[in-house]
Amino acid sequence: MAFGISRAELNEWKQAVRRGEIAFLTHYWLDPRFPEMKTVTKVGCADPNKLVEWCRQHGLNPAYIHNRAAFPHFDLIGPRQIEILQQIGLHDHLERFRLLD
To answer: Which superkingdom is the protein from (predicted)?
Structure first.
């Protein structure tokens, strides 16, 4: 279950993904498989080669890409989520979702 974002933010992410950009969408998230995780950052891109390369550049296994027809994405959670958001300068995501508290 995703929450904490607006419909406009979701639509902006979808449009960027469709354009073949590497797009980031962080939101609150509840999943019984990961009860200790409260947020996820979806890194999406409609260009599968570009998304695979992005994963490799960040030391992530591209085998975990969710190959959704319209919105392929990699889910960042936990310490790697925070580390990568810091590396790429998405400090607003870190602050908004209180990931450094």
So the answer is: Bacteria
36-74 pLDDT, tens per residue? 999 999 999 999 999 999 999 999 999 999 998 889 999
Q: Regarding beta strands 23-29 and 2-3, do their DSSP bridges make them parallel or antiparallel, or are they unpaired?
A: antiparallel
User: Which residues have CB under 8 Å from 14's CB, separation 6+?
Assistant: 70, 71
CB-count burial class (<10 Å; 0-12, 13-18, 19+) for 33: exposed
Say yes or no to pLDDT of 1 above 60.
no
